[in-house]
Structures are given as C-alpha cells and as structure tokens.
Amino acid sequence: MQKSVQKRVFISDIVFDVVKWIFLIFFFLATLYPILNTLAVSFNEGLDAIRGGITIFPRQFTLDNYRSVLSKKSLMTGAYNTVLRTVIGTVSQLFLTSLLAFVLSRKEFIFRTPITLLFIFTMYFNAGLIPNYLWLNRLGFTNTFWVYIIPGMISAFNLLVIRTYIRGIPESLVESAQIDGAGYFTIFMKVIIPLCKPVLATVALFIAVGQWNSWFDTMIYNGFSERYTTLQYELMKLLSSVTSQGANANDMKNAGASMVTPMSIRAATTIITALPIVCLYPFLQRYFISGLTIGGVKE
Questions:
Q1: CATH code for the domain in which residue 170 is found
Q2: What is the DSSP letter of 261?
Q3: Closest alpha carbon to 65 in 254, 246, 278
Q4: In the chain, how many domains are there?
Q5: Is residue 81 a contact partner of residue 229, using CB atoms and an 8 Å limit?
Q6: Which among 53, 58, 25 has a CA at the least distance from the CA of 41?
Q7: What pTM, to 2 d.p., does this model score?
Q8: Nearest 10 degrees: CA dihedral of 228, 229, 232, 238?
Q9: Residues of the chain by 3-state class (helix, strand, coil), percent to 5
Q10: Looking at the domain assignment, is residue 175 inside a domain?
Q11: 206 Cβ contact list (under 8 Å, min separation 6)
Q12: What residues contact residue 59 under an 8 Å CB cut-off, 6+ apart?
C-alpha cells in the first residue's frame, strides 16, 4: 500500500514537472519571438519587409534603416541629453530618496509619520499638468536641462520601498555603530548603504528605465528647445513624421537603391530604444529578484 502511494506521488511529480517545463518553454518562446522578429525587420530592406513572412532572420539584410534613423543631426544631441539625464537623475534620486528613507525609518524622529503620510498623499493626488507647468515655468526650469532632474528627485513610491527594506535591517547594527561614535550620516553611508544593495539596485533600474524612456516631459517643458531635446522625443517625432502611406522622399533614398518604410523605421527605433536597458539589466539581475521580494517575509 505504501509503495503504491509513493508510486502515485512519484508519477504526479513527473507529470507536474513536464507540464511546468512545457509551459515555461512556451512562455520563453512567446516572449523572445517578438524581440527577434523586430530585430530581423530592423535589419531587413524596407519594401521587402512590407511583403511579410519575416520570422527571426532578415530576408534582405541592410543597415539603411539604422542609417536613416541615425542620420538625424538632433539625434546625437538627444542621445547625449538622455544619457546625461539618466545618469544624473538615477544617482541623485537614488541618493536623496534613500537618505530620506533612512531618516523616516528612525523611531527617534518624531515627525516621521506626518511626513510619510504627506508623501503618500502625493501618490494619489497631484495638482495636474497645467499647474505643474506654470509652477516650473515660474521657477525658471522650463527650457533648461534641470527640469529633467530636480522635480523628480524624490519618488514617494521608491521612498516607501527603500524605507521598508531599511526597517528590516537589525537595529543592533545601528546601535553598535552609535556606540563606536558614528553619526547618522556615517551610519547611512557605511552601514545602511552596503546592506541595501539589493533594493537600491532594483530602484536604480526603475529610475533609469523611467529616465531613459521619458519623452513627454521633453515635449511639455523643452519642446521648443533643440539644445535640450532627448533621444526618446526625437524618435517619437521621427515615428510621427513617417506616415502609414510610406516614408518621406529623403528617408527613402540611399546609395544601394533600397528603401526604408514605416515598418522598418519603427523596428529600428524600437531596437535603438531598448538596447541600452537590455545591456544594463544583466548586471542588476542578481539584485532584482531579492529587491522585488521586499516585505514578503515578516518576522
């Protein structure tokens, strides 16, 4: 009888594993195929891509789609501003948000509850687009690079995430540092920051992706300033200028007599947009999962 039960359990485990792996393989292929297809279309000749039937390999290989996108003079300026805002915005927001999160995690700080509630309030209610524009314009941030950095230096959501993680750090570590004569800033830099690498890496990825993909603030605050344009805004304008009827005459000409089309342009811009983040993610992957499980276990 016991052997029969063990055999049924063993067979059920095998069936479960088989179904699980079939599902995971199917999910992996379903996720990977659109990326490979977009990459193939981006390297395929434009008119040939319209015929369809391209899977994961280009049928008529060409670099004209990327040449057409990268031939824009404003694109290099946009790429420079995007990289700059991503680096500065990520570092500044991560440092200031984590510093504030450390302050609000301290039990001896008597104003931690009202300040936390104030930040939570801003997550659900805001003044709206027009008041924000009028306020930033009055402060002199419009048509400047700093409109990308200063208004978003503190994120309420990231603040709560980091504060929750800091609360899970044993208080004895902080008390030991205080006994050794360390001040709060020293404790923050030498105790809290090293122990918060998983959550900081996760939040840094969120911030970097948000800064890299942002184009709406460029259109609203710096839409008339080519000096402070961003890559995403330039690519958005490029996609908007390519109609469904076909690309404009200048874009469709090239030395090899091949032509770019809206489909091929969209594919190339998608790859250009996603490539930096795709390259960044593997370096943060080992922290990403542990950062997402914050608060999942309570003691």
A1: 1.10.3720.10
A2: -
A3: 254
A4: 1
A5: yes
A6: 58
A7: 0.75
A8: -170
A9: 75, 0, 25
A10: yes
A11: 158
A12: 44, 45, 48, 49, 53
